[in-house]
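[job 0412] stage=complex_fold ligand=2-phosphoglycolic acid status=START
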Amino acid sequence: MSGSPPPRLAVFDMDGTLLDSLPDLAASADRLLKSYGLTGIAPEAVRAMIGDGVAALVRRLLAHAGDDAKGIDMHEATARYLADYTPRAVELSRPFPGTLHALEQLRAAGWRMAVCTNKPVAAARRIVAALELEDWFDAIGGGDSFPVRKPDPAHLLGTIGLAGGQAARAIMVGDHHNDVLAAEGAAVRSVFARWGYGRPEMEAGATVGADSMAELPHIAARLLPP
Ligand SMILES: O=C(O)COP(=O)(O)O
Ligand SMILES: [Mg+2]
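[job 0412] stage=complex_fold status=DONE, emitting structure tokens
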């Protein structure tokens, strides 16, 4: 009895990989600073602050504001950011070009899909629902779904487990060194999303890099043949 191998699983990071979320993240960042009477911030400055979750983003925003932000409570600011961002997370954000087509092609080839994001899972679920993408993903592992988050491999392994997959039959697609490191630690093949918000040097350690979503089905098939 040989039995067929378990289905292949493609795990996607969200911000900067599936979703061009910078416009909404940056709009909330700008509103947060202004709500404290601080100078606002442009999207390009926010781009490099994304990838380590909301608390890290808020900490970087307050550091960016310098001495004027001294005395602002981090916990209160993070709660304020989330209260603003969560209901408005898809006002401007859209999947990157070619995303839906890539998901269709992967599914047609028998792949399952999941999301592994450092965003709080409530925000991630809301975004997936608002974009009517629920049917594509077997699991969503958020930044608060497990005791640890990316770059800790347990976040990726936990998400793979939720989706009913296996590390040896999974790939991780992400735009940040947190994604690459989590995949490396979990012994999962990885695709660095060059279209996202990471810097080129973050690709080091990835199995392969991709320039666009359109390349993904082909790359995935090469990394993990059926
Ligand atoms: O919220 C963040 O900072 C990063 O989210 P991501 O893991 O989906 O890129
Ligand atoms: Mg990302």
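The domain at 22-88 is CATH 1.10.150.240 (DNA polymerase; domain 1).
[job 0412] exit 0
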